[in-house]
Amino acid sequence: MRYESRGLRFRKALVPVLIIAGAASLLALIAGVAVAQLAAPAIAGAAREGEAGTQVAGQQGGGSESVDARGAGAGPTGSGDVDGLLPDGTTPFDDAQPGVTGLAPELLSALREAARAAEAEGITMTVTSGWRSPAYQQQLRVDAIAEYGSEAEAARWVASPEKSVHVSGEAVDVGPWDAAQWVADNGAQFGLCQVYDNEPWHFELRPNAATTGCPELYWDPSYDPRLQ
Ligand SMILES: [Zn+2]
């Protein structure tokens, strides 16, 4: 779960901004939040450059190929973070977030259908991560290697930008826990399947799941032949 909330690292940079704004007045605080949200992509970009600029830049060429491979016109839209970082509380219906709109259309519509059904049972679904730019995925990879100490161990949690199903828009991470549990229990009828045993929040579209059920789980992403 830890790498899934790495966006927080970027957002922490906003805290001083909010404190200053809050000291001025409540109105200024509200305005500060709006300004901070607009500024978030720039800050996130700056953070990436500072931390791993060379690696990210080096990967972008190869990574952009996989984005192009999704087909012209299928790219993400919206005024939110251009790399796909999502604010807390983002829902599958948030058309302003590239992290949501960049999902494969069939996956997104299945997700929305499931979200409505969950809501009818009193469970509100959020999207903690969806589509990611190659640069964002590479940053997650670099962070994971630093955190887990080796490329092999990091591969158990974070795929490379070239192989990631988040970069191709074919995977979504659902929160909070009760909603992820709901999708694990009820998602198959919508074609939504958990894929990895160690990632109970990560779902992909398996269109036949309603009739055949979901496939066997991989223990973790390093066992997934697509990521080899
Ligand atoms: Zn995922």
UniProtKB/TrEMBL annotation:
Annotated signal peptide: none
Keywords tagged on the record: Carboxypeptidase, Hydrolase, Protease
Domain D-alanyl-D-alanine carboxypeptidase-like core residues, every copy: 103-203
Pfam families recorded: VanY (PF02557)
CDD domains: Peptidase_M15_like
GO molecular function, one term: carboxypeptidase activity
Superkingdom to which the source organism belongs: Bacteria
GO biological process: proteolysis
Listed PANTHER family: D-ALANYL-D-ALANINE CARBOXYPEPTIDASE, PEPTIDOGLYCAN L-ALANYL-D-GLUTAMATE ENDOPEPTIDASE CWLK
Name this polypeptide is given: D-alanyl-D-alanine carboxypeptidase-like protein
Organism: Leucobacter luti
Classification lineage: Bacteria, Bacillati, Actinomycetota, Actinomycetes, Micrococcales
